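Interim report to the steering committee. The following record documents the input for Pyruvate dehydrogenase E1 component subunit alpha (328 residues).
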Amino acid sequence: MPAEEIDRALARRLLATMQLIRAFEEAVRDHFAARHIPGFIHLSIGQEAVAAGLASALEREDYLYVTHRGHGHVIAKGADLKRVAAEIFGKASGYCRGRGGSMHIAAFEVGVLGANGVVGAGLPHAAGAAWALQLQGRQQVAVAVFGDGAVNTGLFHETANIASLWRLPLLLLCENNGYAEFTPLSVHAAVESVAERAAAYRLPAWRVDGQDPLAVRAAVREALGRVRAGEGPALVECLTWRVRGHYEGDPQRYRSSTELEEAVAHDPLRLFAERLRREGLLNEAEEAEVAAQARQAVAEAIAYAQEAAFPDPASALEDVLYQPSGAG
């Protein structure tokens, strides 16, 4: 991968993004537990480095499709934190007017074309967006984020095949946290390396430490160099750790206490901050300042969401294509 000089500004930006995602999701966790948030919540605590590294290598205009565990990616791409919070709280001022909730956020202004609650469903959507970009002769790329569980669905294989065949400007990014919902990778995949499986479709592939935002950034930048040059799609597999359950409230009886302790030990925020201190790019006061700024931004976003109005019930059928009973 091409070497990149790590300067203080880049290091702080990556750390700030991870801190913001962590603070936001911890607040969402607490408010969900207090029954302030409807629906289901899927947190990416422990996986923040993937979102931060990926977003730092993208342009604002690039398209991004994410999963049901997508808060971090939406935030890292630059979405308005208050509108993200309002959407999760089901409020009218949210990105989808409170209709999408946690699993279906879209923020078109920053290129986030949607999250999806169906495993792997963002893959063909991203391929369609990439095809549109290709037909229009535009320089943007489309990115599909998916988990290891999606690789065993037809959606992954159909997308990888047609994208390779048509040389679409598409990046496939797998967040491999070792679990397809409640099922460990060793039980559901005969070949555990997603990067190896990319060879079946002649896709160049990278497999990187997903707890290191710089490693993720470097792999994505190299992959996107090929994609933007018209050489077709590429795949990046990020090995990461999911600290929380599949959904918030999941008792995680399928994981041992030792494994959970290991997941916590791989905390990307702590590991990255320690590295930056060793390399003289960050001191403890600066780290505390970044964390405090993240908490303040999150507190303001949550307060905004709590005070915002719910959608007017009279607007329930707006944006819905339907035919009134008795219409010809």
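Residues 8-33 form the longest helix (26 residues). The committee is asked to note this result when reviewing the revised timeline.
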